[in-house]
Amino acid sequence: MSVEPLGRRTLAPLALLLLALVALVGCGSSSGGDDDGSGGPPPSTPSSRFAAAGTLPPVLAERPAPAIRLTDARSGEPFDTASLRGTPYMVTFLFVNCPDVCPLIGQEIREALEQMGGQAERVAVLAVSVDPRGDTAEAARTWLRRQRQPQNFHYLIGSEDELSPVWRAFYAAPQIAGDPESAHTAVVWLIDARGRLAAKVDAGTSFEPADLAKDMRTLLSE
């Protein structure tokens, strides 16, 4: 195959250092991803079109989203973003043993889907693992159950060789192996129904699920 305690979000010192370094290159908390996973895209800017997400810079806006071909931990079957043609979706990066940031991102996304009501069935969520060793299929399925995530929330796993191209393509720095604290990129990318990069939410700080729900409705209406 190819190609973050709840409520107030807390980040480990290493994560804060990572975010500070990323900010220096103008990428907020949503970047990482040159050859060693440490570079990043130009920053997004506030948007009148979206509530939670920021507008992407011209170099990224409406560019085709990178293809993702990994294993869906829930089904054990291959998952290809080509199957989402005509469906707006979100892409985020998680690991099951994350003590703070990932559970909160998961909760915020789930609450956004709940606020969308029946419209939620018309979108999808892809959570790409940043910890290929710890994110086994069984561990990911347990995380999905504990988070009470719906069937259209896909936890995608794979080997480091399979995941690395996805990390690079989405400017995502993976979790540092052996580090129990959150030290990876926190972002939610929004992809439109045509499979194009539409916006991104810098998820290093808490965002309102209602705003994310509004943003996904915007994509559904286009």
From TrEMBL:
Keyword Methyltransferase: no
InterPro entries, A to Z: SCO1/SenC, Thioredoxin-like_sf, Thioredoxin_domain
Disulfide bonds: 98-102
Keyword annotations from UniProtKB, A to Z: Copper, Disulfide bond, Metal-binding
Disordered as annotated region, ranges: 30-52
One GO molecular-function entry: metal ion binding
Domain of life: Bacteria
Protein residues bound to Cu cation: 98, 102, 184
Domain Thioredoxin: 59-221
Name the UniProt record assigns to this protein: Alkyl hydroperoxide reductase/ Thiol specific antioxidant/ Mal allergen
Native species: Conexibacter woesei (strain DSM 14684 / CCUG 47730 / CIP 108061 / JCM 11494 / NBRC 100937 / ID131577)
